[in-house]
Amino acid sequence: MFVFYYNDFNMANKTKQYCYEYWHPSVATDCVIFGFDGKKLKVLLIERNLEPYKGYWALPGGFLRETDKTAEQCALRELKEETNLVVSEDRLWQLGVFSEVNRDPRNRVISLAYYALVEPCDVVGGDDAAQAQWFDIDEIPQLAFDHAQILAKAREAMRRQIHFDPIGYDLLGKEFTLTQVQTLYEAIQGVTYDRRNFARKLQTSGIVNPLGKKVEGTAHKAPQLFECNKDVFKEKAQSLKFELKKY
Amino acid sequence: MFVFYYNDFNMANKTKQYCYEYWHPSVATDCVIFGFDGKKLKVLLIERNLEPYKGYWALPGGFLRETDKTAEQCALRELKEETNLVVSEDRLWQLGVFSEVNRDPRNRVISLAYYALVEPCDVVGGDDAAQAQWFDIDEIPQLAFDHAQILAKAREAMRRQIHFDPIGYDLLGKEFTLTQVQTLYEAIQGVTYDRRNFARKLQTSGIVNPLGKKVEGTAHKAPQLFECNKDVFKEKAQSLKFELKKY
DNA sequence: CCAAAAGTGTTTCCGATACACCCATGA
DNA sequence: TCATGGGTGTATCGGAAACACTTTTGG
Predict the structure, then answer these.
(1) How distant, in Å, are the alpha carbons of A226, A229, B241 from that of A195?
(2) Is residue A140 scored above 90 in pLDDT?
(3) Which residues of A touch B31 (CB under 8 A)?
(4) A99, A164, A245 member nearest B160 (Cβ)
């Protein structure tokens, strides 16, 4: 490999192995990982171990490498490195591009942002992250870079997508109670629903199937467990018209 | 400026002025521009003047430059250069990132894709485009790169967004008839609506305001002209719940 | 026995749907 | 006068919304 040395005001006496005829920006990915603890929406953040913004909380993410087959692969790789969380690509959704000139104090960095909804799990810090931690969505600390903006956009995107894809159920795991679904939807949409109407709609529509099992060890009447029928959900979502009903 | 010469299998004896410590991908933008002629949905394409895919039709777009303040600015700049079409930034919507390793035969190129809905207008070719032309959305020629995939995704994104934002009316201009709106929605959603129900809903909801003017020179009863009340539209769209009704 | 959450049925109301006839205009 | 598309009212139906009491369970 050809290597040479070269100085500029940004970076003195470092190797610059990668040379191009035209200007290239740096490209990074960032992930907004949503979770749900049964009561509140959560977001997974890491504490930065490196400058800039060392010590700040931030979205997990990092630079695209030549070995990353796609930007999605980069996002998932960084997520695993920094939080030990493994997410499958079919649960990763594109959020958008953040390309403001000064969004990173070091360089021109284009961030490709993604989001995912995952079921409750443990996370640990690693690599460039001092630690990883779930935060209540309404108690987010000050974030590095423009990550607050990215997070806000992710909330809105998720809120919209939930009308079309059964992603909400990804937050609940394979089995859940109707109350959990309702609490989740209320947390996401910021509204409340009537428990009886909510339960009836979910069951009669076929979006959930009863598993014939009950939760054990509750200090009250044991609720039934259900699973999500994602095919039915998608079929129902397909019938969406303008404002969801036909004119 | 420091300049030196260097060979590799991609590009022999060219100047490589831009050097980085780490690998950087090329970043480009592509635009899917939707139009509407009163009957059919249209898409704006350019004929490529350069290799690769010289002579193929493609989405307007090009490489991100250091002078582009944002990716959006790049997209709009390239659009203007190639088709002479000026679109305002608030009508430009992010579509997604296309980052497959081999999507461009030359190099690793990340494409940031955008879409916009514009009212009918003339376009001309320029710069890297031999010509620019509107195509009926159901009569798209073979496209360069993965642009067919980008276009497909744009159609779907637009179809979803139209539930939440009054972007459909951007295709119609300031004044329009109710039949035009209906034809447009039918073209986008691929369904038909009852003319009376459609008109009533639009008017009683307050989404359109009558202008008290009529179209002139028709070979039949002259239809009224309306304008879109985008604030009302957004307010209505806000009331969307899961499947649009409250549980 | 008490607290806490689950389960369940009926009525009301509104909006979506289906449907057909007359009107205005230019050719 | 004819062809074309514009404008409009009503009856029905179904799903959404509102609403409260009983049941189960562990403590």
Answers:
(1) 16, 20, 15
(2) yes
(3) none
(4) A164
Contact in structure between A141 and A55 (CB atoms under 8 Å): no
CA distance linking residue A5 with residue B175, whole number of Å: 62
Q: pLDDT category, A212, cuts 50, 70, 90?
A: very high
Question: CB less than 7 Å from strand C: which protein residues?
Answer: A 177-179, 195-197, 199-200, 214, 218-224, 241, 243, 245-247; B 194-197, 200-201, 216-222
Q: Closest to B197 (Cβ–Cβ): which among A66, A72, A247?
A: A247
User: Which positions in strand C are less than 7 Å from the protein's CB atoms?
Assistant: 3-10, 15-20, 23-27
Residue B84 structure tokens: 């002479």
Q: How far apart are CA B68 and CA B85, in angstroms?
A: 18
Chain CA centroid to CA B24, Å? 27
Contact B171, B230 (CB under 8 A): no
Nearest to B113 by CA among B69, B147, B164: B147
In chain A the domains, ranked by start, together with CATH numbers, are 26-161 (3.90.79.10), 166-240 (1.10.10.10)
Residues of B in contact with A244 (CB under 8 A): 163, 240, 243-245
DSSP B166-206: GGGGGGT-S-B-HHHHHHHHHHHHT----HHHHHHHHHHHT
Residues of chain B contacting A24 with CB distance shorter than 8 Å: 18, 20, 24-27
Residues in a beta bridge with B181: none
Q: What is the pLDDT of residues A36-87, one digit of tens each?
A: 998 899 999 999 999 899 999 999 999 999 999 999 999 999 999 999 999 9
- What tokens appear for A40 in the block? 């509140």
Give the whole-angstrom CA distance, residue A29 versus residue A81. 13
User: Can you read off the two tokens belonging to residue A179?
Assistant: 């109350």
> Minimal Cα distance from B162: which residue of A?
A242
What is the pairing mode between strands B61-63 and B14-15? unpaired
Q: Is A70–B237 a contact, with Cβ atoms under 8 angstroms apart?
A: no
Determine the distance between A208 (CA) and C15 (C1') in angstroms.
Answer: 27
Instruction: Give the Cβ contact number of residue B234 at 10 Å.
Output: 13
Beta carbons of B172 and B181 less than 8 angstroms apart: yes
CA–CA gap between residue A107 and residue A54 (Å, rounded): 16
